[in-house]
Amino acid sequence: MNVRHSSLFPILDFGFQIWSVPRPAISLTDVVASVPSLRQNCPMTRRSNRQFATITVIGRDKTGVVARITSFLFEQKANIEALEEQVTRGQFSMTLQASWAVSVGDRPTLLAGLENLGRRLGMEVKVRFTEPNRRQRLAILVTRETHCAEALLAALHSGRLQADPALMISNRKDLEPLARAARLPFTYVPWHDRVAAEKKTLQLLEEAQVDFVVLARFMKILSPNFVWRYKNKIINIHPSLLPSFPGPQAYRQAYEYGVKIIGVTAHFVSMHLDEGPILAQASAPIHAHAALSEIVKTGQGLEAAVLVKAVRLYLTKRLDVYWGRVKEM
């Protein structure tokens, strides 16, 4: 069983002032601190007195897995915050978010119990504990186009994106100079064997303690086995207003169909190609005599801007994916 620490749970900030007087200014924090009943029931206080973790369980489908995992967590006095499970071609996958009161949480007992349970079930069990005050770490996956990676690196460098880039991974070596210029570790992973390539990539992400992944025009399809391990934590940019024109040749298809408007879509990666929950979109008009090269140039500018926008939305908002739709909480 693998254990790591992450910053997966955004924490509500109640630090704003609810009224003002000349001296002193009184904030909601002061009010909560002064009233015992509020101190006990305020969401800010409850969350600060709890520890959180995300637990993933993956393996061949069998009966009773959900019941045995949740029963064990109940025995550990855990509260189930969210749970999602599914079976894809006989592969069982579950992502569960749980919390414990700090006073009763016993990490060694929890880890030993889940490890033992995973061994008995024949399942891979991973636990990611939450560190709310740590900035999220991202990995950038690329192939050979530079525009999205350059926009991400510029936004990270300027502070527009408040996150820490951990590494860049690619199935080609074309963008290694870009990563080195940004002093970002670069790893080339050949993708001739997808199973081996994904295994290596997951290992790199685990070692770098990556919280989420950005596909900056990464031109390989990730399997459900990979995607489920970062459920709603992989952001992709697609060169069309989904669901139209799936695949890598969207601008050529748009050109051949004579479209009058093109667009791009940033979305979470799901088990189905180019059908994940949408984070952000943008479009641009195309004049009647536009050449393919002009359409591509316009589209690439949109891609870079919308991908940065989607990552910023992911970092700054509390998002919930419900029935395939992304909502701000």
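The record above closes out task 2.4. Task 2.5 opens with a second protein, given below.
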Amino acid sequence: MTRLLLKRNLTVFLFSFFALHSVVSVGGLYRSMAWVDMPVHFLAGVFSAAIFYWFFQRFPSHFDASRHFWVTLLMVLGWAALVGVLWEFVEFLYDFLIARYSLGLNILQFGLRDTLGDLVCDLLGALSLAIFVKLRYHNR
């Protein structure tokens, strides 16, 4: 896959992800259809792992992802966990600073079970992409 094609695919995926998240948030579907949250966070994990792989493909002198699968897997999962936790902080700050004082905006945080489920889905998405990359591109 050429770099231009990879960059275009990541851009389309990012735009689609944020469009989906915006429609679901504004429409209140996170509250009425709680299961919608899981695929959104799964895709967020896939996307954060894709950014990880893009970075190390772009700057190969930093780390060779094809040589050390277990180290790469831990780094991908750590990166996805970091991105997921930062996302949850953004949701919390949105609820605390914006939605709390507005009568028309929906909250995004529904408790500890929701937050931990979101993080698990983020990690599962990243794990799925890491296994796919290993089997598709680095299988020896």
